[in-house]
Amino acid sequence: MFIVPVNPAFPGAYIEEIPSGVRTIAGVPTSITAFIGWAARGPADKATRIFSLSDFQGHFGGPDKRSLLGYAVFGFFANGGADAYIIRLAGPDARPAQAAVDSKIDFETKNAGAWGNHYRVATKIRPDDATKFRLQVRYFDEADDPDEAHGVVIEIFEDLSVDPGNARYVIGVINEQSRILHASLKGTPDSPPADSATPVKLTGGSDGTVLLPDTSAFENLLTDSSGTIPLLEKVDLFNILCVPGETNPVVISKLQGYCRKKRAFMIVDCAENATFGSLQAGPDPALTGINSVNAALYFPWLKVPDPLQKNRPRNVPPCGFMAGIYARTDAGRGVFKPPAGIDAGVSGV
């Protein structure tokens, strides 16, 4: 703040306050949680930041009964979580859906999965300008639905051109703005694709192998040979790590070491079939080494109403629910308060 007299007109003493170099210490997030698991859709080449369950639904399609990831993310947000990264593991046999329009433009979904088979594309040339065209992306509940009227228009792109010098060049517009499609031209067409008599169906999308925790196919994609999680290396900050359902002591030990190196904390799930008796002597010694100071193991698994099975109970690992309680406690009281006691009730179980 400056206090400066305006146009002093007579002799005297004047005070001018100048700003100090001292700054208020800003708070640092303490409960950004990274979740890793298999999903049927979503980016598999980066850690995607989300802030709500609807974000997870939009990017990754929501819970999938074949995977524990969606249930853990649900538990996180249901219990007070607000900020998370999702790393999708997809098998090498997962494939994107594809379509060719008028032998001029190739389209494929931006990430692999059978989800892309529900989409179709339609083109229409502008009546007043034959060099421009419109592209519609439509969604069908049933991938093989023959009734065009059942499709819902999800994206529309107007005034597209196949001219690379045009500001509405189709490749640039689609690849930058569409959340669904990636486009490429076949050769160098000199005119837009013809009007679509019927929408062109994207086909060939495949979920590939469903990767389950505690299997080699899952664990080989989880970390590299040094125990590092490559996609998390590109994230500025994460505080908590959850790998729902992963209980292999050797793998968990590597992840504990990684968290310690990154000054993060890992929430470890017990085995689904663990009992009070099997844990009385403590967990596997591989989990209690020097790196375990940055980890906590939770028992037992939780029973939740599964919306994908008419709310019948399903066992799910506790890590996501506990991460939400950590976040809620940090926000409500502070990082100094343990996430336990009568204020640490678990919601949604």
Q: Describe the biggest sheet? A: 6 strands, mixed
Total domains, how many? 2
Strand content: 15-25%
Shape: globular
CATH architecture grouping of the largest domain: 3-Layer(aba) Sandwich
Structural class given helices, strands, pairing? alpha/beta
The CATH top-level class label of the largest domain: Alpha Beta
End-to-end distance? 53 Å
Q: Count the strands?
A: 15
Helix content: 10-25%
Q: Spell the H/E element sequence.
A: EEHHEEEEEEHEEHHEHEHEEEH
Description of the molecule:
- With 349 residues, this protein is an alpha/beta fold.
- It folds into two domains: 33-92 and 209-332, Rossmann fold; 98-201, Immunoglobulin-like.
- Helices cover 19% and strands 23% of the residues.
- The chain is built from eight helices and 15 strands.
- The protein has helices at 53-60, 69-78, 170-177, 216-222, 230-233, 249-261, 276-279, 319-332, and strands at 33-38, 48-50, 84-89, 98-101, 105-109, 119-126, 129-139, 152-160, 181-185, 200-201, 240-242, 265-269, 295-298, 302-306, 312-316.
- It has a six-stranded mixed sheet with strand order 2-3-1-11-12-13, sandwiched between helices. Strands 8-7-6-10 form a four-stranded antiparallel sheet, covered by helices on one side. A three-stranded antiparallel sheet has the order 4-5-9.
- Helix 2 (69-78) runs parallel beside helix 8.
- The longest helix has 14 residues, at 319-332.
- The model has no long low-confidence stretch (mean pLDDT 92).
